[in-house]
């Protein structure tokens, strides 16, 4: 493996027809010469080719990351220097905000409002960790006599970071920023469907002066390159966001080398709407909770439980507003709901809806793939509301990952909590009530990593994000994430 390079890395147009891997600080083509094509889900058009990483490429990336970690300077920089570099990454991202937004929209088909918020959050993540790392200190502990003990946080090493397609840039930022803040090196594997902004993020890191080998990006197949990274003995940690079944397989494989693992997995998050809630706020919050990002959100509030005394009023307003949601041009400010990522996800969503219908559920709104004028070759699904459901239906139990809400009534607080907790998942949840005592009681009883009280979102930099139960473990987006990229060393001395 070559030594660490320092020459200037020239930025390129963000929107282009071909994207390379980033290995050891250089744009690199696949050793096989293979590429794959990325499609705009809103139009079905091919937008770019991407170098397709092989296991050989993954090996090169791991060795570059290893070299940078074991023999490079990054982890030994004074912490304020690493902090400055993270701020520089954020500043370049800010200066190219509109380009990043455009690329994210083309890659995912999401609405401009969603893309703008997510790109801004990715920038703020780097700024947040630039600040947080400076005060990420060890501790001093009292021991008897002349013994002394202090602890130090040491970066865990080379981290494989595997990214899903629903928030391609934001999820990459959630992982890369805390990892490199601590001094780790990373090998990022973006989702094959949406690799573009993660590749560009890798380029910006290098352009910012992050030494070669610290950030490597290997777009390639999850079942091949992903597994290769997870199995490799020179990789110390895997951070994964994606589906629960793949998360389970990663945990099993990673056990062979006892890697550190963090998993952000699927969800089936409940919203509890009590009779004393501000109903209009709960309606708007529930629309956002399920239809934001076309429902392709791990924390989508896809199960809505409404107290029976306000059920009719809530449903009338919720259904009427659902039917008015605009699908279409993702670049238009008037578009509420963007495209679905691809044909196969569209079929998965439709399969859940059809199966609920066959089991006696009532489709209150939507319920079918949508035809959108001017976007006939894209992938679209009508915002859908389903009632008359039971907890044994797949549409209520399983993560649909699309714009589909199931709704049920509840009698009282006890039943609401029982319904909310009747799931293998435990990622997000929402409680709508004006009664502070009730909000506190219910929040404590819900088995989920996140509770949103009278608000439809939670993911601000600094707020822990992650799940209970089969939604995974480990928290991202917060100070505690830094601990997950470190080992704690205890030094006991006697003078
Ligand atoms: P997955 O199919 O699980 O894919 C996620 C990533 O893992 C992709 O990069 C994928 O690569 C890779 N991968 C697939 N099989 C792999 C394997 N055997 N070994 C290693 N890597 C592998 O999920 P998805 O369809 O991209 O994303 C949707 C899921 O992610 C949903 O279930 C959603 O809830 C979850 N999600 C969770 C969160 C949080 S924070 N909990 C956030 C976003 C999404 P390829 O693209 O090449 O297949």
TrEMBL record:
InterPro entries documented for this protein: Ald_DH/histidinol_DH, Ald_DH_C, Ald_DH_CS_GLU, Ald_DH_N, Aldehyde_DH_dom
Domain Aldehyde dehydrogenase, chain residue ranges per copy: 30-491
UniProt KW Nucleus keyword: no
Keyword Transferase: no
Keyword terms, alphabetized: Oxidoreductase
Gene Ontology molecular function, alphabetical: oxidoreductase activity, acting on the aldehyde or oxo group of donors, NAD or NADP as acceptor
Active site: 264
Family indicated by similarity: Belongs to the aldehyde dehydrogenase family.
Name of the protein: Betaine-aldehyde dehydrogenase
Organism per entry: Jeotgalibacillus proteolyticus
């Amino acid at each position: 493996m070559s030594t660490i390079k320092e020459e200037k890395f020239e930025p390129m147009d963000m929107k282009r027809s071909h994207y390379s891997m980033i290995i050891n600080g250089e744009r690199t083509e696949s050793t096989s010469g293979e590429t794959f094509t990325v499609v705009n889900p809103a139009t079905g058009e091919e937008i770019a080719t991407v170098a397709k990483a092989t296991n050989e490429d993954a090996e090169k990336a791991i060795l570059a990351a290893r070299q940078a970690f074991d023999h490079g300077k990054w982890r030994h920089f004074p912490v304020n220097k690493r902090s400055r570099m993270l701020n520089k990454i954020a500043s370049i991202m800010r200066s190219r905000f509109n380009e990043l937004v455009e690329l994210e929209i083309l890659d995912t088909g999401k609405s401009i409002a969603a893309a703008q918020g997510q790109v801004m959050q990715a920038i703020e993540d780097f700024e947040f960790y630039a600040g947080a790392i400076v005060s990420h200190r060890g501790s001093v502990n009292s021991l008897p006599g002349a013994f002394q003990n202090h602890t130090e946080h040491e970066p865990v090493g080379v981290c494989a970071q595997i990214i899903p397609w629903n928030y391609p840039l934001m999820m990459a930022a959630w992982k890369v920023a805390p990892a490199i803040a601590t001094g780790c090196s990373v090998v990022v594997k973006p989702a094959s469907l949406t690799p573009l902004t993660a590749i560009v993020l890798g380029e910006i890191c290098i352009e910012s002066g992050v030494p070669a080998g610290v950030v490597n990006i290997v777009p390639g197949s999850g079942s091949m390159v992903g597994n290769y990274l997870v199995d490799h003995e020179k990789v110390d940690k895997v951070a994964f966001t994606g589906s629960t079944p793949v998360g389970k397989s990663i945990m099993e494989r990673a056990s062979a080398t006892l890697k550190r693992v963090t998993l952000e997995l699927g969800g089936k998050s409940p919203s509890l709407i009590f009779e004393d809630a501000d109903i209009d706020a709960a309606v708007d919050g529930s629309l956002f909770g399920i239809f934001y990002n076309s429902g392709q959100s791990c924390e989508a509030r896809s199960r809505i439980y409404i107290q029976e005394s306000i059920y009719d009023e809530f449903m009338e307003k919720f259904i009427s507003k659902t039917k008015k949601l605009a699908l279409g041009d993702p670049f238009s400010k008037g578009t509420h709901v963007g495209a679905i990522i691809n044909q196969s996800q569209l079929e998965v969503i439709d399969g859940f809806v059809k199966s609920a219908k066959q089991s006696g559920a009532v489709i209150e709104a939507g319920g079918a793939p949508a035809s959108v004028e001017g976007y006939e070759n894209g992938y679209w699904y009508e915002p859908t509301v389903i009632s008359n459901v039971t907890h044994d239906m797949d549409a209520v139990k399983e993560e649909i990952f699309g714009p589909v809400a199931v709704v049920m009534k509840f009698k009282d607080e006890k039943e609401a909590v029982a319904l909310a907790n009747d799931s293998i998942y435990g990622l997000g949840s929402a409680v709508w009530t004006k009664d502070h005592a009730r909000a506190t009681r219910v929040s404590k009883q819900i088995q989920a990593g996140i509770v949103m009280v009278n608000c439809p979102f939670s993911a601000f930099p600094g707020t822990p994000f992650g799940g209970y139960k089969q939604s995974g473990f480990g928290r991202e987006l917060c100070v505690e994430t830094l601990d997950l990229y470190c080992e704690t060393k205890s030094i006991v001395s006697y003078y």
